[in-house]
């Protein structure tokens, strides 16, 4: 086949029917879970000032230095497509005075993100995250509650995961630890890849995040942050783990977990799927107690997570489908051109009554149309031929039993609504 004139940009994808069924189910399940748990949906713009991200995510993080879709608009404003969701929500929290609401303020979001990443399986330049943010409490119970929400959702959709958890403690304990890390990596400076050399100067924590194979042995021997947590951080983290035990949520203590964004403080976690290799993180999150203040608001502790929807879908594809599909309820069969116009009229009446109806521009015979109705899985085929047109009636054929009855057209919509319990 010749290449089409226009192709989607590298690293993006189209969701074509029926694939959107899976997306809709994921989104609906996530929404229902979040609403049940008292979260309200928030939506922020797809682009924000570039500085919002450089400040919050961090100047020397990969997300900012390599992956931002930053641009200048026609008025010379520096903007960026959103590489992650938290910074924009914190901006909106401050700007809209959400801090005046009863705490904790619980928000959820389902939004596209944009990163100029090297595309590969599970890694896109436009991808979707579903997540939550909770503002206004530093209680370790909140960390556990947030993790439990994500875990419940993953269990509900049938995705197997392992929860990886760590704490990077307070700014003070992180400082001591970073000094230790520098001392550890410094003697190996010459052998380090270029990126790690730069990170050693700017933020050695980043080296722990490195996927570079040649570095893994060295990273394994590095001091662990957990040994440098100050008392308050260690206690808070201990409590988070105890609450998770109490909730019956299993976890792996992963002392290498640092996550790629600067704003995290305290508890950090990731959900790993069963995919082998680097792209197996299906989500992550943690505490970011300093970010609201850093972006100009009142000091407000906060925690949240984000799950990558494409990664969840990849996990689901490994299992037999349990995704409910939306089936039409009735199919309109018409015989002859005059009956066809009548069928389209009846379709309008049924749709007005809230019945999911299929009415097609077909020239096929009765048997073929009934076969199509059976394939679509409808409960009733509604047949209109010459006689029914004259009598102003419809034949209702129940597909399962093949029973047929005749019904005046004027009564049909109300009768179907009654049968399908549409209120
Ligand atoms: P992060 O905050 O960067 O760890 O991202 C949170 C989650 O979003 C990850 O665990 C992935 O599931 C997903 N994610 C991040 N980057 C991408 C990407 N480029 N393509 C698809 N999913 C992504």
Computed Rg: 28 Å
Span between N and C termini? Answer: 49 Å
Provide a count of the helices.
16
Report the oligomer: single chain
CATH superfamily of the largest domain: Bira Bifunctional Protein, Domain 2
Ligands = adenosine monophosphate
The CATH topology of the largest domain comes to BirA Bifunctional Protein, domain 2
Percent strand: 15-25%
Strand order, main sheet: write it out.
1-5-6-11-10-9-7-8
What is the second-level CATH architecture of the largest domain?
2-Layer Sandwich
Q: What is the residue-mean pLDDT, rounded to a whole number?
A: 93
Q: How many β-strands, per DSSP? A: 16
Which geometry do the CA atoms define?
elongated
What count of domains describes the coordinates? 2
CATH class of the largest domain: Alpha Beta
In a nutshell, what does this entry contain?
With 423 residues, this protein is α+β, with helices and mostly antiparallel strands. It has 16 helices and 16 strands.
């Amino acid at each position: 086949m010749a290449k089409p004139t226009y192709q989607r940009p590298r690293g993006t994808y189209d969701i074509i029917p029926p694939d959107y069924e899976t997306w809709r189910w994921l989104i609906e399940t996530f929404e229902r879970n979040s609403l049940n748990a008292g979260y309200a949906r928030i939506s922020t713009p797809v682009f924000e000032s570039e500085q919002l991200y450089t400040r919050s995510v961090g100047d020397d993080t990969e997300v900012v230095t390599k992956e931002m879709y930053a641009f200048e608009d026609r008025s010379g404003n520096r903007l960026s497509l959103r590489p992650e969701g938290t910074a924009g929500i914190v901006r909106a929290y401050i700007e809209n005075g959400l801090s005046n609401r009863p705490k904790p303020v619980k928000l959820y979001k389902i939004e596209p993100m944009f990163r100029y990443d090297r595309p590969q399986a599970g890694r896109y330049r436009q991808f979707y995250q579903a997540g939550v943010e909770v503002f206004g409490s530093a209680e370790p119970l909140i960390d556990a509650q947030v993790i439990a929400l994500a875990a419940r959702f993953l269990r509900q959709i049938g995705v197997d995961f392992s929860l990886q958890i760590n704490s990077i403690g307070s700014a003070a304990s992180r400082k001591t630890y970073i000094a230790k890390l520098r001392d550890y990596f410094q003697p190996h400076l010459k052998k380090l890849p270029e990126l790690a050399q730069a990170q050693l100067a700017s933020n050695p924590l980043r080296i722990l995040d490195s996927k570079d194979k040649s570095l893994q042995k060295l990273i394994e021997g590095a001091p662990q942050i957990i040994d440098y947590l100050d008392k308050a951080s260690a206690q808070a983290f201990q409590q988070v783990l105890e609450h998770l035990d109490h909730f019956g949520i299993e976890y792996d203590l992963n002392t290498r977990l640092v996550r790629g964004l600067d704003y995290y403080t305290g508890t950090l976690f990731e959900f790993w799927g069963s995919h082998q290799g680097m792209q197996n993180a299906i989500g992550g999150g943690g505490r970011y107690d300093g970010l609201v203040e850093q972006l100009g608001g009142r000091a407000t502790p906060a925690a949240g997570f984000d799950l990558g929807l494409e990664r969840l879908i990849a996990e689901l594809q490994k299992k037999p489908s349990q995704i409910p599909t939306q089936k039409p309820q009735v199919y309109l069969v018409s015989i002859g051109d005059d009956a066809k116009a009548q069928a389209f009229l009846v379709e309008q009446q049924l749709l007005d009554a809230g019945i999911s109806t299929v009415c097609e521009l077909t020239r096929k015979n009765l048997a073929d149309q009934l076969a199509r109705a059976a394939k679509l899985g409808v409960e009733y085929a509604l047949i209109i031929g010459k006689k029914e047109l004259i009598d102003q009636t419809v034949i209702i054929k129940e597909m399962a039993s093949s029973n047929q009855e005749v019904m005046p057209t004027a009564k049909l919509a109300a009768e179907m609504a009654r049968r399908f319990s549409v209120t």
